[in-house]
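Attaching the record inline, Q. Sequence:
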Amino acid sequence: MLFQNAGNRSRTPSGQRAFTLVELLVVIGIIALLISILLPSLAKAREQGTRTKCLSNLRSLQFAVTMYCNENRQFVPATNWGANATTNGKCYAGWLYPTGNSGPAADRFPFPGPVRPNLMEDGAFWVYLKTGAVFRCPGHSPDLVLGQTDSITSYLMNGAMNGYGVNKTYPITKFKSDDVCMWEADERAGSAFNDGSSFPSESFLPASATSNAYNSRHGKYSTLAFIDGHAEAILHEEVLIQAQFSGRNHFWCAPAPDSAIGH
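Structure, as predicted:
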């Protein structure tokens, strides 16, 4: 009797049956279809999250510009253009790293290789930000280092801030509120990352047969920070027009050479 009861307990209850193979395949197909529909949305949401964080970084960097100006008679910080961050013969810490001929060769321009992270702690912005995370877009892979300074930053300062190498800085009042001060440079722009600043045409590259337009971290968008403190994501095709322009615009915004004033 015991064996008979045990056998009865193992039987399939009346009215119930297992899934057939066809039914299982249909369920699997539906799940696969739902996943295929959701994946692009998830990727888009991830891209938007990365862009939002990147814009937050740029606003923080622009905040550091404002704080520096407030503490230095409204003069903008040195750009780390080439080997120089000087005004009227005086050496100042550049926004990204210190400038000078002291220290090991690896820490002096021209950098022989990727810049070490600790170098930014002696830059002019570190006192206001205190974290290296602000200097890099969250979508910037540490394995993608084509220049030197892109080992520590995704962003560069517009070389217009010191007149593209005149080695003098300007009062921030010499610029318009909607002039571009900082940007996330193209991830293919290895030559732009030889120091802490660049020409607009060096940072923003057109599409080619072998590479997509602008960095893939933000798809079709470029992220920029402006003198008045705000940051925007703007279509790369619109940015490229101005970056390749030869006249005065939001990118090519260096004041007249005779108005450069050292501080």
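DSSP finds five helices and seven strands in the chain. The two ends are 103 Å apart (CA to CA).

More tomorrow.
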